[in-house]
Amino acid sequence: MLGLAEQTRLWSVGYGLGACALAACALSVMRAARRPVRAAEAEAEAIGPSRRLAWIGLSAVPSGLLVAVTAHITTDVAAIPLMWVIPLALYLLTFVITFRPLATWPERPLAVLLTAGTALVLGVAVIGRLPFLIDLPLSLGLGFVASLVAHRAVYGLRPSARRLTEFYLFTSLGGMLGGLFAALIAPRLFPTVAEYPLLLVAALACRPGTFAGLRRVRPDLRHRLRPALLAGAVVGIVGVLGWRVPGLAPHLAMIVLMAGLLVSWRAPRRVVGFAALLCALALAMPHLVARDYESRRSFFGVHRIETDASGRFRLLTHGTTLHGAIRIRADDGGPALGRPESTTYYAPGNAIADVLAVGRAAHGPLPAVAVVGLGAGSLACQSEPGEAWTFYEIDPVVIRLATDPARFRFLQECTPSARIVQGDARLTLAAETGSVRVLIVDAFSSDAIPMHLLTGEALALYRSRLDAQGVLALHISNRHFDLRPALARAAAEQGLTLLQRLDRLDEPFEAHYRAPALVVIATRDPVVEREAVRLGWTPVAPDMTRRPWTDDYANVLEAFFDKLGHTKAAPLRD
Asked: Which of 23, 127, 492, 568 is the least buried, fewest Cβ under 10 Å from its Cβ?
């Protein structure tokens, strides 16, 4: 509801008040420190290394889950503070709830909720994904319950008041390590977002008395090694079966998952249950067992390259959204040769491809074309001889994949002389000096469109890069937001007319990998507008009562409710 400048002023006032309150607390503590310390408080308390490690570990798990859950829920929506603050607020609330003496504490119900929620999330990892409106409360609720359980366990291990400084130092260290693992280490260790399910399994170990049964094992070495050997055998047997037997991995993962949860619930062989859970995780993540599967991870997310079930197409997926497909086998089984055909949202006749047709029909051949967002490079094969193409892409991993002819041949076969500029499009476009006839903004992080590419300042930048007959197009297909009203209002501020076109899917998607798209054109040229209408584009009337989106203000909740009111108007990106 507030712009960034207004938020900054309010935050400054609130921060000043917080500093004053902290100073008042310090003065109060200083006065209290002059009082004599009771003998019971003055006694030293022996704290061993295992207890310190427990403080660190129990604090690290919920901190890592905070980062993992935030990344999980923002991948397909929008990477904005409005979404970040929800899991953060719930995480901090668990400290408020647990770090206080409570006469009764519902430990068993929370443990049951944590186990059942983990089973559901890991099961979904095998069979697919949940709808966002179910996934969001499930992820937030599970992270909240896991943090409650772990932080209550930390509180239960607290020392006397005299050792609280050390206690808080180690719990803070654990929180830092958990955040570092999820934010910096895991992206380098795992080709997919594996830290989220792994931390959920680790959270199960934070339940009250999880390994209490193991303390009753007799000191005989054989009895100590038996659970570990059994766990190793479970992992080995299930892993080999999942690897060797085609199609067995998903079904085996579900069986092992349920068995692991049941075994881990009862003492004394929980170590076997946790081993089974980890094995189920391995089977639930196809990148660990599939041979025709490849993952690349960058700061911007996980990119998967795989072959479809028919063996005819190679697919590029980012997060949960398909970003490109190229035919690698003809229908007769032979290799696909020659100039590849554009697929997915860029297939001939689709709205994005027809943006180029609008420009050519209005003023002839296109001297220069710019595209924000590279993907697999599919749009390159809609080019014609004599056109100069430039792609702007922020993710270096995407550039490496699209320019590798062993994976995708669109750029090599269709626009070998195309220029690729790495960096944020707002910055790299601002540094350009020339103009283009057609500018297509097709930037996505999974299903989320970067908000800073849709504001009034962004449209003004795009307009400055276009020549007098220029055509600006924005691909705005999205599962959660209807961006047309906001863009129409921002375009009106820039003196641009907005037109829309929605593709319809009239054949099975897997037949030729043609995907529907919602695209809008913004132009100030009446000739371009007339040709667009002739080719099936319809004007979008701006609602001048709306507050226009700017770099200072963007109301994504408004776009979310617009989507709820026009569910059938915009296509899904699957």
From this structure: 568
